[in-house]
Specification:
It comes from Geodermatophilus saharensis. This protein is mainly alpha-helical. The chain has seven helices and three strands; from the N terminus they run H-H-H-E-H-H-E-E-H-H. Helix content is 66%, strand content 7%.
Length: 163
């Protein structure tokens, strides 16, 4: 990225290319994170979308249930995408979908004991992967980076939401 910025400064000194330094590095980091997470989840027979759904259900607490709409909001995906994820997880016995007792028209997604075991086995490995990725930063730097990234997301309209 430094070389690219130097080249643009030489070729187009009339332009401020500094945004490339931030966005380009975020893009590079995203790829590194994606590859590391993919390898981690694969060791547990999962992928990132499956992990996200299982984790959302586990975080919901007993009885580990959410509606597909709540899962869609958590994962920030379309209804078609969440349906595909739920289909795959249900086929593997990691979740169930049943009609809501409160509203027979609504569907409730429930984490099965097998789904809980799968998530609970993958989570420590996932956290170790994230710690390894962040190992080059001090605690103060991590806190500052987390705050800056949060502010960045908020300015893009990604306000914190409750599922």
């Amino acid at each position: 990225m430094d070389l690219i910025l130097e080249q643009w400064a030489r070729e187009r000194p009339d332009l401020d290319c500094s945004p490339m330094g931030v966005i380009g590095r975020i893009t590079q980091l995203q790829r590194e994170v994606h590859l590391a997470q993919r390898a981690t989840f694969a060791r547990h027979g999962l992928d990132a979308p499956s992990f996200d759904v299982l984790a959302a259900l586990r975080r919901a607490g007993e009885p580990y249930q959410l509606t597909p709409t709540a899962l869609m909001r958590t994962a920030l995906v379309t209804s078609g995408a969440i349906t595909q994820r739920l289909d795959r997880l249900e086929e593997r016995g990691l979740i169930t979908r049943t009609r809501s007792e409160a509203d027979g028209r609504a569907v409730v997604v429930t984490l099965t004991p097998a789904g809980r075991r799968a998530l609970d086995a993958a989570l420590p490995d996932h956290l170790d992967t994230e710690r390894r990725l962040l190992a080059g930063l001090s605690d103060d730097e991590l806190a500052e980076l987390a705050g800056l990234l949060r502010r960045f997301l908020v300015t893009l309209g990604r306000l914190p939401q409750r599922p």
